[in-house]
Amino acid sequence: MATLRSMPAIAANHLFVRLPPAVQAALRPQLRIVEVTRGQILVDDRQTVTQIGFPLTCMAHIDAPVGDGRYAHTGLLGRHHMIGTHVVHTQPFGARRVTVLIPGYMAVCDLALYRAQFKRSGALRDMLVWLQMHAHRRIGQLAACNATHNLQQRLARLLLQIHYIQDLTVLPIAQADLAHLLGVRREAITRALAEIEAAGIVALARSRIEILTFEGLTARSCDCHAELVYAGRYDYATLNPRRRA
Ligand SMILES: [Zn+2]
């Protein structure tokens, strides 16, 4: 059982601390920190969204329906993102599912509270235009990567991406989840991981991948990680400061 002492603070979410100050002040007293587990569905396209979440130590993946009840991976969400707000920004916009990839903590509050802030704050709406633009770039880069690069390149790109988003060197990820994220069979992931383990790039344990050399991993990766870092603009250095209200 986690104690309050070991729970991360809301400041662990890099997006929350860059929201307009008035929005932060309105949301902060209402935030609750909750623990989420691997495979937990945070947004289900068949159910009404009632809460929004700011990932702290957890990470989630977004999937789009591809028919026959199956879903395919379209993006990752971590400490630079918020979850569930899409129903406020683009209400009629299509189906999606968000599932926990790496278990951990998340700060949540009622969607209605966020919706009221989105109506009230021009600064928040401006910021969302900027965030959506980068989200579109990330999705485009991922689509290009999946259409162009081989599994070894894409696996290295994904491990670098997860490390970058959540600042982890030991990735607590199951091979079955990697197979889903890369759209291949589990056996193909097992072979690809064994190859980079033999090259001394990672050390494998059950549901755990430790990155031993970033140079080795970068050399195996396509250039899409670098492009994703640029496209994602996770440093928020260029965040639109035009309006501050
Ligand atoms: Zn690529």
Order of helix and strand elements from N to C terminus:
HEEEEEHEEHHHEHHEEHH
CATH class of the largest domain: Mainly Beta
Identify the CATH homologous superfamily of the largest domain.
Answer: Jelly Rolls
Bound molecules: zinc ion
Outline: globular
Which structural class do you get from the secondary structure elements? alpha+beta
Strand content: 15-25%
Domain module count: 2
Mean pLDDT equals 89
Record the SSE blueprint.
Elements: H1 21-27, E1 32-36, E2 41-43, E3 51-55, E4 59-65, E5 71-77, H2 86-89, E6 97-102, E7 104-110, H3 111-120, H4 122-148, H5 151-166, E8 170-171, H6 175-182, H7 186-198, E9 202-205, E10 208-211, H8 214-220, H9 224-232
Antiparallel strand pairs: 1-7, 2-6, 3-7, 4-5, 4-6, 8-10, 9-10
Bound molecules: zinc ion.
Zinc ion binds next to helix 5.
Provide an overview of this structure.
It is a single chain. The chain is α+β, with helices and mostly antiparallel strands and 245 residues long. It has two domains: 4-121, Sandwich (Jelly Rolls), CATH 2.60.120; 150-221, Winged helix-like DNA-binding domain superfamily/Winged helix DNA-binding domain (Arc Repressor Mutant, subunit A, Orthogonal Bundle), CATH 1.10.10.10. The protein is 41% helix and 20% strand. The chain is built from nine helices and ten strands. The chain has helices spanning 21-27, 86-89, 111-120, 122-148, 151-166, 175-182, 186-198, 214-220, 224-232, and strands spanning 32-36, 41-43, 51-55, 59-65, 71-77, 97-102, 104-110, 170-171, 202-205, 208-211. Zinc ion (ZN) binds next to helix 5.
